[in-house]
Amino acid sequence: MLGKKLVTAQKRGETRALCLGLGMVACSMMMYFFIGITIVPFYTNSVWTTETVCKVLKANIKDKVFCPNSEGSEDEEIFPYPCLQVWVNLTASGQEVMLYQTEDTLEKNPKCSYVPDKLENSKEVKARIEIIASNFKKYQTFPCYYDPGGTQTNAILSRLYPSKGLLFAFLWPTLMFTGGCLIIVLVKISQYVSVLSAWQ
Prior knowledge:
Keywords: Glycoprotein, Ion channel, Ion transport, Membrane, Transmembrane, Transmembrane helix, Transport. It is a single chain. The radius of gyration is 27 Å and the shape is elongated. A 5-stranded mixed β-barrel has the order 1-2-3-5-4. Helices cover 52% and strands 21% of the residues. The chain is α+β, with helices and mostly antiparallel strands. A hairpin with a 5-residue loop joins strand 2 (80-90) and strand 3. It contains 4 helices and 5 strands; from the N terminus they run H-E-E-E-H-H-E-E-H. The protein folds into 2 domains: 50-161, no CATH class; 163-199.
């Protein structure tokens, strides 16, 4: 009687462990799919792939501009902010180009190097842009990215999804997938050993 209870408990434990392993594998596959349709396209479509050193030529704050109204956006999304324009010299090619914060900045407003998030306090936005401009004037040289193919005649300060960030994004689903597969393999080995012992 006790033996039957132990076997039943063992089977329940194996079933739960197997479900856990399969669940981990399924979740990791969903994470792979989500990363594949969101982060990977941004990484592969970015043309600013080569790192070089940028030297600041000038950093000026122009009059206030309005955040461009994209298709389908509402009027409340438009807000004025000082336009910071940073021009740099690329040491790799010697070109004088305009610097943008990220790839997204160029899409939001190609006239400005930095596009702030929408904030109700305009003084805070102005103070932040002035600090950024003074930092550019203070640190004259820094690493940046440019397009070696020449399709984009500008540079960006940092990529939205660098290679390290992409590898880090794939790290967690990989660990989950490996853990799930390991649990399934251990359950199958346990079942095989149990059957072998019963047969003997």
